[in-house]
Write a structure and sequence with these properties.
- 6 copies of one chain form a homohexamer.
- Chain A has 8 helices and 12 strands.
- By secondary structure, chain A is α/β, with parallel strands linked by helices.
- In chain A, strands 2, 3, 4, 5, 6, 7, 10 and 11 form an 8-stranded mixed beta sheet that branches. Chain A has a two-stranded antiparallel ribbon with strand order 8-9.
- In chain A, helix 3 links the parallel strand 3 and strand 4.
- The longest helix of chain A is centred in the last third of the chain and has 23 residues.
């Protein structure tokens, strides 16, 4: 439930070194490292592929078909932030285009995560400003109704609190609460470290059945092989 | 982002007289009275129509295809509660049927709000146990993985904190944070009081254009009448 | 493409006797009689079943999340009309509830067809005011942006011109252009007259294969029976 | 993959006593009794609620927007059959209305399961002919292209072989292969027998946690209670 | 509502210089310049990105699963045209592939906008023939039922009259009625001219809040800043 | 209806030369050559475009949110196989990532067709391991419940029997039953041979109307040209 018409100026951001380091681990590994939680719904897709990012969340709550608060949010961006935008109802309108992207980028924003639509996607790619959205749409918006900036929002089914870490890549978007960021980084790094050796074994033909010692539990569960 | 494997036993519930009084005002009026916020997504539909309810939320976080935590939640129900169930991924399986409903009802639960599927819907109607869900499905679930009970959850796009008031009817489901419940009741009651007179006027043929004094602002906005 | 900010006051309505007579023939028969055209998309569903209606269209174009023009439309309603509401973008908000229904009904409207959401559905059924919509939602709307009244609109994929006949029942909604209404009534009546005899034959066990003389064309098309 | 243009006249049907007996056990219980398989996708919904049925499958494969084969199928129906209709592409057109229902009913069909649309739903309810479908639509169909009758079809994601048992109710539709029907009946009956005692216990306030002895496995899995 | 079985050979096309000039302004700018109308639904996506086009509409109305009229439409194409295809029901079949594209291209068509599916997408990209569609599907179609060519059609929710200008790019598709084309070009060009200066300002760090003078209206609307 | 907990080790695969040869003909041509059947639903999309493949099917049936059987399936892969994975309920979780892909690739698998989600899509592209899926999702899975390997499965609406040929490209996925593979190759090759001449004619400006001799049947069907 949302408080409307407010802008919180002083939010506590997760440690920036931690936030920065999570990008290269990727959304899947970070999600697993946190105990398999934190993902936004999979309908959130990158408007162009190939750009993994991480950063600290500046949140914005929008009204349907109204992007007024995006301009308010721009002022609250600091270098290293990722803007996370939620809407009070389902909407696919194009809330964001190349002008807002120019403004966000000049403030130091790394990306936009928006549970709605965006436009000017070709220019956004040329500007190298990545966006994860539920839609692409030319549909314009008005500027008439207040939402809020830097309140906790639910974006694509996930609660995002201002200052949390966002990790986004071609696989999706994950939110890491700031209190868990250091631990998540550590766990994800450990998980990642492990993967090189596993990959090598699997590439050499060793089966996961053997590497993970699954044959016995599968047999216990009743698996039968038939020739 | 969710804490897994925990059950909070002592939650602070909204005042029960307030919670009880909100049902008859309805989800639309309460949502308007709070400033047009608090609604779960409209894909949440009653499995049978005609039963407005309100009560205090006991929350449960479920894993996909796994209803183990529903049994854990049953023990935390007190008379006047409404169980609000979220899932860590999109799922339409039938997590809940007549046996769980019998248990919930015997504990005093008034309804279930679940962002997944339910089954035995004919029996649930005969038992007079209302459910709002995203799906109806015979698909059964397993009992293998922990979720949590009475943590804040995101259900159908809305954050629900244990003890919040839930108001549900044929129009949808709204969550009223416990800190706002008294004020929401007051505002909704005032709004409702107003409606009788308005309805009478409109029934007599008075136009909303005149009753709400819209002709001038419409003209200012540029509306043109063409004969 | 839409002209915004205009209200056409004098529209030419289809002949009212014709418009009235189409209800009892039903949307499927009328659609077939016109050569299998005219249907709105099947996501348009009655909010409660069992009420076939027909009448002349008063159209309204709405902006997303904004029901201002519904009040403007109310004044243009004459007895026997059905209001047809389109939105400039996809939206499921609850544009219409019991107050507007009271106003529409007092002006003589028979139904609402809306490519968006409505609320107060229980009261609408008690008032006996039928609605076909794409959604049911408590979500409220604002009054800030102009649309139009009585311009041609596209509602759920079908072009509806003011004054056209709308036929709606549990099977869906069909639009009959006013220029075709008399011919459609005639053709639909003929079609209907035919059906009683067919139904009797089929009920007695005669097969459609024989009644429609399909055996030869099926054989020509290559159908093979295998024992 | 489908054989087109063929009608198999002599299919082996499941034992009729078994097929008849499954209706009252319901789709959810039968699905569980078979090891949690056999369900059609949950988008298949009854066009009106409250009628549990079971019977032996006569299958029909349809082309998009073409209901020719429904007439061919009618001839293959025997008393106690349920017609299961699949389409070679996704389609919501209204393939079936009151005339075909009259024909099917006169041949002894108990219901239709169709992965497409139907129309005349009000009349179908008055005739007491239940249908489970993916859509309701007035849209008519043509008779131009061959499909097949009584070949194995995939309907709403489930393989249905002619003569299999179909069990359908408000919770959904399940297919029981004829070779498994007797065993499924036995297992479902046993399951059902069990439920009365469980329901009584739960109604008296015993928790599932205790009745199913879940406390220990939950503790082992790491569940923590916090006061 | 559609007239079936007709081909209009002499349509009035929008001025070709105007039609050609709109491509580089883009669908979003043109839509804004017309007063925020004219867009097809955002489910219409390019089968490959990066190709902005504009041209005059040749329209075709198709029957579900039947592409016969596409061949009829081919003959009506003139250099600079864009074919706009609607279907009388929702359908995702592959109506169009490399052979039809070869024919369309040889007639001078610049693109296809189709509210259905297409196939041979890899070859279409190699041929440099852009398509905006609702689906990609290998599913073939038949040639059995008449539709029409060059009648007004509703494509993806928007009315398109033969000869209107179509503007399509990665953001979506907009229809500009021929009577408005000159004015739309002028307004869009003015809008575009404006954007360079704005972009520069925003890039230099000036906020939209200041550039658009939003601080006062936001304050009036009640926005509160909290430190 | 599925047999659970079994792995068939000795499946009969379609002839490998035939299976290999179908890739370059493409899913659309092969589907047409078989009489317009065999396609999986069009929601199955390549995670990256441009890689046509064909091979013999190893099938796996998965439980919702559980990828245990993928490891069991890995052992059954032989060079030239394509793994086809179905789930017992609708699910978009990420069942498959770079580690499993490494294992599958080292066993000789050419691709994965999965009616669920996958992750690590950027790495999968770098590895040149193509996947057709219904979703992309970071969401992890558990290993708790048995499915089966090498039983007939329904994947995206199509029955796939182990050893059948799978043909997949940017247009979609088609299943060729092994008994029909040789004939399908022959028919598709003939069809393809034909296309070059047609393409040349169409490119030179000959109309399909003339090339396919459609003018007469169109006239017979009642097509009217209006000047």
């Amino acid at each position: 439930m949302y408080e409307l018409g407010v802008v919180y100026r002083n939010i506590e951001r997760a440690d920036s070194a931690t936030a920065d380091a999570l990008a290269k681990l990727g959304s899947a590994t970070v999600h697993e490292a946190m105990g398999r939680v934190g993902l936004l719904k999979p309908y959130m897709r990158p408007i162009y592929p190939g750009v993994p990012v991480s950063g600290t969340a500046v949140t914005v709550l929008l009204q349907p078909g109204d992007n007024w608060m995006m301009h308010v949010a721009a002022e609250q961006i600091r270098p290293g932030d990722i803007v996370v935008a939620a809407v009070t109802a389902e909407c696919t309108d194009g809330y964001f285009g190349d002008l807002l992207a120019t403004s966000f980028q000049s403030r130091g924003a790394r990306a936009l995560i928006i549970d709605a639509g965006v436009r000017d996607v070709k220019t956004l790619q040329e500007m190298n400003f990545p966006v994860w959205s539920r839609a692409i749409s030319s549909k314009g918006t008005i500027k008439a109704t207040l939402g809020s900036v830097n309140i906790p929002v639910v974006c694509a089914g996930m609660l995002v609190t201002p200052g949390d870490v966002i990790v986004a890549d071609d696989d999706g978007v994950v939110c890491v609460p700031k209190a868990m960021a250091a631990k998540a980084l550590e766990a994800a790094t450990a998980r990642e470290a492990n993967e090189g050796a596993k990959r090598e074994k699997l590439a050499s033909g060793v089966l996961g059945l053997d590497m993970y010692k699954m044959r016995e539990p599968l047999e216990k569960a009743g698996l039968r092989y038939i020739d």
